[in-house]
Design brief:
Length: about 80
């Protein structure tokens, strides 16, 4: 399983291509990028003060922080796995 997971590599998304300089975002995508990276918060270009900053928890390059969080689901032990 681990060996398989190491083969699952996504490195050709549009975001990856923009980072590599081989593509550019549309205006809409660029607005989303600025929100995601918290660059829209009361800046000269407008945008809501105190808007979201997703990158706080979803950092580059995998938009993860490699930590585990309790997101409110039941413990595995309390689920009857019928599969
Ligand atoms: C305070 C930390 C935090 C912030 C800020 C945050 N997230 Fe998350 N996000 C999480 C956690 C924790 C999860 C659950 C991770 C999991 O289920 O593996 C999650 C899950 C997600 C998922 C589902 C990922 C998956 O693999 O199913 C998406 C999509 C997402 N967040 C998008 C966003 C966006 C867009 C923003 C900004 C508007 C944002 N997040 C801001 C902590 C955060």
């Amino acid at each position: 399983m681990e060996a398989f997971l190491f083969t699952v590599v996504f490195d050709d998304s549009k975001f990856d291509r923009v980072q590599a300089g081989t593509a550019i975002f549309t205006d809409s995508e660029e607005r989303g990028r600025r929100i995601f990276f918290g660059q829209n918060q009361g800046g000269p270009g407008g945008g809501p003060v105190g808007g979201p900053s997703c990158v706080r928890c979803h950092g580059d390059p995998n938009f993860d922080n490699n930590q585990h969080f309790n997101i409110g689901l039941d413990d595995v032990g309390s689920i009857t796995d019928l599969g």
